[in-house]
Amino acid sequence: MLSLLREEHEELSRRTEKLNKELIETLVPADDLDSRSVILEVAAGRTTGGDICQQFTREMFDMYQGFASYKHWDFELFNYTPADYGGVHHAAVRISGGSVYRWLKFEGGTHRVQRIPEVGLSSRMQRIHTGTMTVIVLPQPRDVDIQIASKDLRIDTFRSRGAGGQSVNTTDSAVRAVHLPTGTVAECQQFRSQLQNRDAALRVLRARLYQSIMGRQRAQTHAARRQQVGTRSQSERIRTYNFSQDRVTDHRIAYVTRDIKEFMRGA
Asked: For 45-203, where are the E strands, in sequence order?
């Protein structure tokens, strides 16, 4: 009888966990854009943390890449600007697959890190430093969603700047697309082909314009992209990653999880 009770308890525990997940999914409101691919950007904080911010930005980028691999999504790099000591200033990717926006739409905002710097990143050792980075998540519009008139578009070409692996060459293959009426800018320098860079830059530009339009339609004061970027200050954080205490805290829902290394694996 005791054995049967243990088996029944395990089965009921599994069913309870499954029902809890289904309940949470039901409570989260559906979005017409949930099935869309996304343009995801990561950017290091500007004023606090210095090298800490740039290193953390690279780790967050790797986390999203790992999560995309876990979900079997396509991860197409558009822009990657490296920093010193292996960090990243800014990166932009297109993630496509099943319900990508549904899974990533709440990642946008300021993320804060608390850790003791690694050797070589700072001369002030043995105390916890704090830095921030920003995640921007834009649903990828379909071509029918937004059209850009040729007279409203300016295409600039320039030479790739950073250490971008195979994409960097000695020709002016990098592309910057500017939407003249709004001043919205997008660029890509990851491919050797100027045509590929142009196509990628236009995808990002359409996504930014589309999100801006959607923001106005929802009567928001600012476009969603600017809301996600904010001032990149610590007061606007949505999540804190405390490496010293092995803890990740989501401030929006007061949820705490442990095992930060596993969390950063993105799986």
From this structure: 74-82, 88-96, 109-115, 129-139, 153-158, 174-179, 184-188
